[in-house]
Amino acid sequence: MLPLAVVALLLLIVPSGHGAPDIDRTAVDWKTPAEIKWVRNAAGTNESAVLFGDPSKPGPYNRFVVVLSGTWWMGTGETFDPESTVAAPAGSYVIHYANKVHYDGAKAEETIIQVWGMGPATSTPAEKR
C-alpha cells in the first residue's frame, strides 16, 4: 500500500489534459452540458435544445424517441383519442415518421423521453377543425 503522501504526489504529476493538442472539430464535435442551451416551449410543458444543424431549414423529418423512464402513450389518426393509445414502457424506441398523423404523451406517471432528429419540427392538432 502506498503512503498517502506518495499518492498525493502522483496525483499532482499526472497530466490533467490541460494543454492537450486541439482536436479537429470538423471530424468530431461536441458540446459540454454548460454549452447546451435549453429553451422551454410556450406552453411550459417541455424543453428542447439544438445540438447541431440549422433548425430554420424546412423539410419533413423523422423524429426518434427513447423512453428513459415511465410510460409513453402513442396514438395515430386524425381523431385525438387518449383511451386508444398504446403503451411504450421505459427502454422503448419509437419513430415518428414525417408527414404522418400521430399524438402521444404521458398519462398518470412522470415520464422522461429523449427525442432527436433534424428540424424544424411542426406540431398540428390531430383533429381536423
Task: Give your account of this protein's structure.
Helix content is 8%, strand content 27%. It is mainly beta and 129 residues long. The strands form three sheets. It has a three-stranded antiparallel beta sheet with strand order 6-3-8, with no helix packed on it. The protein has a three-stranded antiparallel beta sheet with strand order 5-4-7, with no helix packed on it. Strands 1-2 form a two-stranded antiparallel ribbon.
Structural class: mainly beta
| Strand percent estimate | 25-35%
Task: List unreliable stretches of 5+ residues.
Answer: 6-12
Residue-averaged pLDDT, rounded? 80
Helix coverage percent of residues? Answer: under 10%
List how many beta strands DSSP finds: 8
The spatial strand order of the largest sheet comes to 6-3-8
The main sheet comes to: 3 strands, antiparallel
**Number of H/I helices:** 1
H/E topology pattern: HEEEEEEEE
What's this model, at a glance?
The chain has 129 residues and is mainly beta.
Characteristics of this structure?
129 residues; 8% helix; three-stranded antiparallel sheet; globular; mainly beta
